[in-house]
């Protein structure tokens, strides 16, 4: 009587080198390497679970409760989510965050690309220029914001002094609801250029030189080389810069807190600042958790959509 097909397959697996009873048996040295790998990964895994996954799930659960620190959480279902959209200050913060992101992300990316291309050329003291552009990113935002507050000062600030030379009257940059958000956006663009420029610079140095040499031999101009070689080769870097810029813009907080505290008349309040006010000024932890969950959902959806649009399957 001949053996059935599963019996033949089981016998073939059992006869393979390094397998006992169908289970792969690793050499002793390889087993030690695997255990060492697990031990080295363990701290990072424990850190991620304790400080990332658990807080995320805790915030998600709290978003369905009425929790005010001094009393136990009470289950309220979706009441916090319903209340958010009748909260005029929070609705305003969603709009302000969108406006802030709409202007800071593309302008900062465009300027960072231009600066990276310029600093990729062989110019004198380019290391100093690179350090100068990157310096705002590594400087504490509070310190940077204090400097910009001085520059925006309506009486002794640098901007009004420059306008005075041109014969233009003073502007209350941070005190006027019409000018407060553009003033914050300008500072956000300036501070965000450094890290984007650094990523673009690294990507530019990874483009093979022979592509430009072949294009030059074919008679392509510098502009044609930039459009048809540089920009396509920066596709993945651009996607990465866009995603981190998007997340940074939606999470802007410290500059708003220092410069305007959401004012005047909520003209610069953003979603993270409303989460802070709900949690640490009103002590409505459940409501603040719902706001934070909505912010996470918006960032997640925008990231997925941008990935689809750029078709960055390998990123």
Give the SSE layout.
Layout: H1 5-14, E1 19-20, E2 23-24, H2 28-62, E3 65-66, E4 74-75, H3 79-84, H4 88-119, H5 126-138, H6 141-151, H7 158-165, H8 177-204, H9 209-217, H10 222-233, H11 235-250, H12 254-259, H13 271-281, H14 285-310
Antiparallel strand pairs: 1-2, 3-4
Report on the structure:
The protein has 315 residues and is mainly alpha-helical. The chain is built from 14 helices and four strands.
Structural class: mainly alpha
Query: What is the mean pLDDT?
Result: 88
The total strand number stands at 4
Order of helices and strands: HEEHEEHHHHHHHHHHHH
Q: How would you describe the shape?
A: flat
Proportion of residues in extended strands: under 5%
What value does the Rg take, in angstroms?
27 Å
Oligomer state of the chains in this structure:
single chain
Indicate the percent of residues in helices: over 70%
Strand order in the largest sheet: 1-2
Low-pLDDT segments: none
Number of contiguous helices = 14
**How far apart are the termini?**
55 Å
Summarize the structure.
With 315 residues, the protein is an all-alpha fold. Helices cover 71% and strands 3% of the residues.
What keywords describe this structure?
two-stranded antiparallel sheet; mainly alpha; flat; 14 helices; 315 residues; 3% strand
